[in-house]
Design brief:
heterodimer; A: 285 residues; alpha+beta; 4-stranded antiparallel beta sheet; 2 helices; B: 276 residues; 8-stranded mixed barrel; 3 helices; 9 strands
Chain lengths: 285, 276
C-alpha cells in the first residue's frame, strides 16, 4: 500500500508531461535502412517543460509546450521511455512506458491533455511522397476543452469532419497552394481557429496540431513539416525588377518638363532681351 | 502441536505474502495505467499494434526474475546498426514491463533538433506613416524572368519564392506606385525614412510583425543591387519595392526602383528563437 500511495502522490505532484522518445548514439546521426523514426510533440497546455528519457538517459531535454522534435532514427525494438519535468531525476517520471518500434516506420508521439489527465498519443506517420503538385495534410485535435471540430477552407469546402480530442485525421491530399483554413465546432460555420496563409507546398507532408485551450483563447495551430520531397532546387536566376508603375501620376513629370521648357524659353527671351538692351546701350555710345 | 504451530505460521506467512504482492501489483498497475499510450493510426495502410504502453505486470506467471534476463537480451543495444534478430512481435512481452528490474544500457544522446514548421504567407501590411493599409497577395516570376507585379493597384505582392515575413532572410513585398489614372498603394513609399514602422500580419505569427525601416534608396532599374534584394540574412528583414524615377512613355515603365529595407523588431519579452 505504501508503494501505491507513494506512486500516486508522485504522479500527481510531478505532473509532467509528455512522452516518448528517442535516442541514438551520437556517432550515428543518419538513419540506417530499417530504422524506425520517432519524434516527440509537447501538446499539454499547462505542463512544464520536460525531459524525455530513453533507456535511462535523457534523450531530449527541456521540450516546451508547442515544441516538437525532429525525427530521431532508432533501431527497431523496444525502448523504455520516461518523461520528467525538466531537470528532475528519472525516479520522478510522470510517464513511464515501453514502446516497440517497427522497422521503416515513422512515429509521432505527443503528450496531450491537461497535466491532470496527461496521456501519450502515438501516431503512425505516412511520410510517403505526395503526388506531383500535391501536399499531404493531417490534422490532430489536441485541445482538451474544445469540442469535436470540422476543418474547412474559409469560404470553401469542409475538408475534415467531426474530429474529436485525441484524434488524428487521415492524410488529406491537397493541391499545392496557400490556404486559409478554419477549425470549427462540428456542424457550425463559426471559426474557432483561423489558420490563414497556410502554404501547402509541393511534395510536402504536414501534421497540424490544434493545441491550447479553447476556453481561454489560447487555441492555436502547431503546423509541423513531416517530410519534404527533394525538389530539384530550381535556383534559377533572380528575377528582374517588377513593373510597378503605369505612369498615371507621371503627368507631373511631364508637367515639370513642360515647365522647364517654358522656363528655358523665358530665360532665353530674357537673355535675348538683355543682349538687345546691351546692344542698345552700346549703340548709344 | 509443534507441527500445527508451524503450519499456521506458514499459512499466515503465505497469506501475508499474497496480500503484499497483490497490493504491490495493484499499485504498480495503477501507476502505469495512467501512462497508457492512446494509439491512433491515421494511416490506413499501417497498423500500430506494435506500439503499446507498458503492460501492467499482470503476467500470470508472476515470475519476473527469470524473464528479466530475456528482456535484457531483447533490449536494443546502442549499436544502431545491429539488426534485430527477430521482427518485434505485435504482442508486447509483458515481462518487458518490469522496468525497475530491467537493466537497460543507457544510450548516448545526440543533439535532437526541433521540428520545422509550415510556412505562412503574409496577410496584410500597414504603414501608418504613409497611410498604407493593404492586403497581401502572393506573386511569382513571369515567363520572361521578371518578378510579377501585383494584380491590383490596391494590394501588395509578396514574392513567394523568397523568405516569408517572420522568417530569416529578406521577405520581398512589391507595390505599384501608380495606375494609369492615379496613385497606387505604394505611391508614398519614397517618404519613408529610417525608424518608420511597417507592420505585417501573418497567420504564422500570433502577434503582428513589426519592422523598422533601416534605409530607403532609389536605384536605376538595372542597377538595383541583387544582394540587397535577394541576399541571405540571419535575421528577418523586409524589402519594399516600388517604381521611381521618370516614366518612359515609349517603354511604358519607370526607370528607377525605390528599395526600402526594414529590420524585424523583436518584441519585448518575445520568445527567443527556437533551438537549433
Amino acid at each position: 500500500m505504501t508503494l501505491h500511495w507513494f506512486s500516486l502522490r508522485k504522479l500527481s505532484l510531478l505532473l509532467g508531461l509528455a512522452l516518448l522518445v528517442a535516442i541514438v548514439p551520437a556517432a550515428t546521426v543518419s538513419a540506417a535502412d530499417g530504422d524506425a523514426r520517432v519524434r516527440v510533440v509537447h501538446a499539454s497546455p499547462d505542463a512544464p517543460n520536460v525531459d524525455i528519457w530513453v533507456n535511462g538517459s535523457v534523450a531530449i531535454s527541456d521540450l516546451a509546450f508547442k515544441e516538437a522534435t525532429d525525427y530521431v532514427p532508432l533501431a527497431p525494438g523496444e525502448y523504455q521511455i520516461q518523461v520528467t519535468p525538466t531537470g528532475a531525476p528519472a525516479t520522478e517520471a510522470v510517464i513511464d512506458t515501453t514502446v516497440t518500434l517497427e522497422a521503416d516506420t515513422d512515429y509521432t508521439v505527443a503528450a496531450i491533455g491537461e497535466v491532470a489527465n496527461i496521456q501519450p498519443l502515438v501516431l503512425v506517420d505516412d511520410n510517403s511522397a505526395p503526388a506531383a503538385g500535391k501536399a499531404h495534410v493531417r490534422v490532430v485535435h489536441a485541445s482538451p476543452d474544445a469540442p469535436a471540430v470540422d476543418v474547412a477552407v474559409a469560404n470553401g469546402p469542409v475538408l475534415i469532419e467531426n474530429l474529436a480530442f485525441g484524434e488524428a485525421s487521415d492524410y488529406l491530399p491537397v493541391d499545392a497552394a496557400t490556404y486559409d483554413l478554419q477549425v470549427r465546432p462540428t456542424g457550425t460555420d463559426t471559426s474557432a481557429l483561423d489558420i490563414s496563409g497556410f502554404m501547402a507546398e509541393d511534395g510536402t507532408t504536414y501534421t497540424v496540431f490544434a493545441v491550447g485551450m479553447a476556453g481561454d483563447g489560447s487555441l492555436s495551430a502547431l503546423p509541423l513539416v513531416d517530410a519534404k520531397a527533394e525538389m530539384s532546387s530550381a535556383t534559377s536566376a533572380n528575377p528582374s525588377m517588377p513593373a510597378t508603375g503605369a505612369g498615371g501620376t507621371a503627368t507631373q513629370a511631364g508637367t515639370s518638363a513642360w515647365l522647364l521648357a517654358l522656363g528655358a524659353l523665358a530665360a532665353l527671351t530674357l537673355t535675348t532681351g538683355t543682349v538687345a538692351v546691351a546692344r542698345r546701350a552700346v549703340a548709344r555710345r | 502441536m509443534m507441527q500445527l504451530r508451524r503450519r499456521s505460521f506458514i499459512l499466515v506467512f503465505a497469506t501475508l505474502l499474497v496480500i503484499g504482492s497483490l497490493a504491490m501489483s495493484f499499485a504498480v498497475s495503477r501507476a502505469v495505467s495512467t501512462t497508457q499510450p492512446l494509439v491512433v493510426s491515421s494511416s490506413p495502410t499501417r497498423t500500430v499494434e506494435s506500439v503499446e504502453g507498458t503492460a501492467p505486470p499482470t503476467d500470470p506467471t508472476g515470475d519476473g526474475s527469470t524473464t528479466t534476463s530475456e528482456t535484457s537480451a531483447r533490449v536494443r543495444r546502442p549499436s544502431p546498426t545491429a539488426a534485430p534478430t527477430s521482427t518485434p512481435t505485435s504482442t508486447p512481452d509483458a515481462t518487458a514491463t518490469l522496468n525497475e528490474t530491467v537493466t537497460r544500457e543507457p544510450l548516448i544522446i545526440g543533439d535532437v533538433g526541433r521540428a520545422a514548421t509550415a510556412r505562412f504567407a503574409p496577410e496584410s501590411i500597414s504603414i501608418e506613416r504613409i497611410g498604407v493599409n493593404a492586403e497581401i497577395a502572393s506573386i511569382g516570376i513571369t515567363p520572361e524572368g521578371q518578378m510579377e507585379d501585383p494584380d491590383s493597384y490596391d494590394t501588395v505582392g509578396w514574392y513567394r519564392f523568397g523568405p516569408a515575413p517572420g522568417e530569416a532572410g529578406r521577405a520581398i513585398l512589391v507595390g505599384h506606385l501608380d495606375s494609369k489614372t492615379g496613385p497606387a498603394v505604394f505611391y508614398r513609399l519614397g517618404e519613408l525614412a529610417a525608424g518608420d514602422e511597417v507592420i505585417i500580419r501573418s497567420g504564422g505569427s500570433a502577434t503582428d510583425l513589426v519592422y523598422v525601416v533601416r534605409e530607403s534608396v532609389s536605384y536605376p532599374e538595372a542597377e538595383v543591387p541583387a544582394d540587397l534584394i535577394f541576399g541571405p540574412t540571419d535575421q528577418p528583414e523586409l524589402v519594399l519595392i516600388t517604381c521611381a524615377g521618370v516614366f518612359d512613355r515609349g517603354v511604358g515603365a519607370y526607370d528607377e526602383r525605390r528599395i526600402v529595407v526594414a529590420d524585424l523588431r523583436t518584441p519585448q519579452g518575445a520568445e527567443s528563437a527556437p533551438h537549433t
